[in-house]
Amino acid sequence: MNKHGVLVVDDSALMRKTISDIINASPNFTVIGKARNGMDAIEKIKKLQPSIVTLDYEMPILDGLQTLIYIMAKAERFVPVFMITNDEKISIKALELGAVDCILKSQLLEQKDYPLENFYKRLDAALRLKSMRTEEKRNPMNEEKKDREIQMKSDKEIIIIGSSTGGPAALQKIITQFSSPLPIPILVIQHMPPGFTKPLADRLNSICQLRVKEAEQNECLEAGVVYIAPAGIQTTLKKDEFGNYIVKQVTTTNIETLYKPSIDVTLLSVSEIAKEKMITIILTGMGDDGLRGCIAVKKHGGTIIAQSEETCVVYGMPKVVYEAGLVDKQLPISSISKEIISIL
């Protein structure tokens, strides 16, 4: 079986060797080249035609983000870029710019809570990734310039969004299209390593009109605010005596799952208390997290929207929910925010 070629880009000779050794030990990949800066990487991408590029951030001549921008804009073909750095904020920015995945160097090298098999699976997923299609430049929400608050037309109480690979860019696309406060809160379950969700929330908060923050234990969810579930722990919701949704974060549950946070865990808890008054949105990502939760959501009469295949980075989670017959509407990423408002 022929292995897929990887170009390793890092200014440290030691890191290039270490990352190369890890990749060469995988069943499906082999390092076909190494580069010590961005300019070197661009030349070797043209020459070697790698299947995947791993990219560091801090490099001389041309840093990782500048290199990524060039690859996304100028490369003759789409090359999945896997960011390997120790800066969570840079990783979030890289995902927005088109990187397909990211991992902390410390996480990859220490291998305490992160088996290499997981890294290899993410490399496998990168091979199945396709470039997000260029969406129309017009922003349908901005055309309407709705400066007043959206008036409630339904009894919906909460929106849950589940996303994984490709999620940060998809979330940005949805949330930035809201030009007015929503009458209900949004809780986002994004698969990410610990340390990444707070920078993601801060980044989205800086570019969105809605307030975005990381969810905190015992916090009362407020209308019009977007909450990002923290990584490394499960996020469930309870209702207080006034009908408010309260964050209850737990380390263990009776639900078997590989993910922290898990979309299934959150949906199963919320469907019991919100019933038909919830909207669930399943975005791009590999695997089937969210399927069990969506079964419960549908059982209780909730609304389910899935991202369309052509706009997904990985059509995994939306696919299994759609093929299970649970989806009310399957939409391109550019249409989801408009659909939410039409429901509300």
Describe the protein's topology:
Layout: E1 4-9, H1 13-24, E2 29-35, H2 38-48, E3 52-55, H3 64-74, E4 81-85, H4 88-97, E5 101-104, H5 105-110, H6 116-128, H7 140-144, E6 158-163, H8 167-175, E7 186-190, H9 197-207, E8 211-214, E9 225-228, E10 234-239, E11 245-250, H10 263-274, E12 278-282, H11 291-299, E13 303-307, H12 317-323, E14 329-331, H13 333-343
Parallel strand pairs: 1-2, 1-3, 3-4, 4-5, 6-7, 6-12, 7-9, 8-9, 12-13, 13-14
Antiparallel strand pairs: 10-11
Describe this entry's structure for a reader:
- The protein is an alpha/beta fold.
- The chain folds into 2 domains: 4-128, Response regulator (Rossmann fold); 152-343, 3-Layer(aba) Sandwich (Rossmann fold).
- It is 37% helix and 20% strand.
- It contains 13 helices and 14 strands.
- The protein has helices at 13-24, 38-48, 64-74, 88-97, 105-110, 116-128, 140-144, 167-175, 197-207, 263-274, 291-299, 317-323, 333-343; strands spanning 4-9, 29-35, 52-55, 81-85, 101-104, 158-163, 186-190, 211-214, 225-228, 234-239, 245-250, 278-282, 303-307, 329-331.
- The protein has a 7-stranded parallel sheet, sandwiched between helices. A 5-stranded parallel sheet has the order 2-1-3-4-5, with helices on both faces.
- α4 (88-97) links the parallel β4 and β5 (101-104).
- α3 packs parallel to α4 and α8 (167-175) crosses α13 (333-343).
- The protein is elongated, with a radius of gyration of 20 Å.
- It starts with a strand and ends with a helix.
- It catalyses: [protein]-L-glutamate 5-O-methyl ester + H2O = L-glutamyl-[protein] + methanol + H(+); L-glutaminyl-[protein] + H2O = L-glutamyl-[protein] + NH4(+).
- Keywords: Chemotaxis, Cytoplasm, Hydrolase, Phosphoprotein.
- One of its GO terms (biological process) is chemotaxis.
